[in-house]
Amino acid sequence: MRLSVRRLLPPSALTIASVVLTGCFSSAEAGRAGPEGGRIRVAMMQPPRSGLSPLSDDAFKLSRWSAAETLVKLDADGDARPALATGWTQHSRSWTFTVRDGVTFHDGTRLTAEAIVNSLTRAATASPKPRILDGVDLTAKADGNRVVVTTPVEDPLLPQRLSSPQLSILAAKAYRGKTVDPVGAGTGPFELTKVDGTLSASLDRYDGYWGGRAKAAGIDVRFVPDGTARAAALRSGEADIVEAVPVSQAAVLDQELITEVPMPRTNTLYLNTGNGVFKDASLRAAARAAIDAESIVEGVYEGRADVAEGLLGPALPWAADLRAPVRRGKAGDPSGKTITIGTFTDRAELPEVAATVQQQLQKAGFEVKLDVRQYANIESDALAGAFDAFILSRATVLDSGDPAAYLYSDFASDGSFNISQLSDTAVDRALHKAAEAAAGDRRRKAVSAAEAAVLSTDAAVPLLHERVIQGDAAGVVGAVHDPRERELVTRDTYVK
């Protein structure tokens, strides 16, 4: 039987939330032009943090609005496909990209190899660098209508890296000293025309778009951090598309208006293999056997998450079919063993997840203490191995669209985020093989083998894969439900 824990708000709270959005979208913004052609009103969760600079995480907003584009894009499997580049070839440490003809920036200037080199060079030499280039050095040079990108060592994932919105290609006018201003400087079907700090942004259809005219006249964005207010905007008709509807609000909305999108994010119980109780593999196996992930999904997430079968979830459509069998260790007797589990408050569900895991492990015989703090105050202790176990919501696909980087950072002996303190030669071999494999089926199989190697150690017990809830008004056509959160409104999106 499905357990549904609905957190209903009183009518007064809903009224207050509606007021937050009232007047945010003007009557002009709400105008429609027949079956297509009107403007799309979007309520987004997070305001810009860096003035919409593409060298920051704000780049993903530009991508979701189809304002800025990259040399390549990713398909559902994470493979690179043409965008501003029509093709590419690899020669040892260099990749050569052919520039698409007939593309203009929103300021009317033409896309050239030199313009691409300018954008890539600005990103590669920025301080700090965009996250996608952490630990990666690259140089770019123009060669006619081609761009040659070179790295110090062979990089099989370079095209995937260049798909990151943080490496968007902008017109020369965008770069002013150390700042980057994307207004009127992209190549997408919508031109960013106005930004009002952390309150709003406006975009108009760019009729010169190389991929064909957009169906909507423009996009009007409001940044609404309060989740209750975002849900109220969908219910009242104040917004056409709403990002990240809270689980607590989903139950009170018309279920026809919301879509649950699997995210490449896994909630995992990391067990400390370096010292303490879980240095004993049999006790790690006992902890794994005691966990009932389904009750966590139903009780904490109200059924709006997926029980984890592995570290990689349904946001990676190939993961389930390629999942390799895992050899499980025999469970020992945990009676009387005292452990401390750490987690953080920044993600609202995690303390409740920790409390449920505490109960399950106590039922198995462990004595369990919890240490719950803000993430900024607990991360260093977690990385230092101060806890017997740690519960973390972790992105499994980073900016390149490839899970090998996550697996390596979290489970390699020299991984930078090795909370489990894992040092296992078989795991290291599998991770190195995955990191060096060429992109495509070969790499996906190697990643699956590495996942199995990690799970066989019981250093990590995957609990669930998160979903994000997107709201689309009844008249919305063609809004994208993207697990990677790179697309939302495209050339084909409009409101009836």
Automatic annotation (TrEMBL):
Highest taxon listed in the record's lineage: Bacteria
Entry-linked PROSITE patterns: PROKAR_LIPOPROTEIN
Record-annotated Solute-binding protein family domain positions: 81-416
InterPro entries registered for this protein in UniProt: Peptide/Ni-bd, SBP_5, SBP_5_dom
Cited SUPFAM superfamilies: Periplasmic binding protein-like II
PANTHER family named among the record's database cross-references: MONOACYL PHOSPHATIDYLINOSITOL TETRAMANNOSIDE-BINDING PROTEIN LPQW-RELATED (PTHR30290:SF65), PERIPLASMIC BINDING COMPONENT OF ABC TRANSPORTER (PTHR30290)
Entry protein name: ABC transporter substrate-binding protein
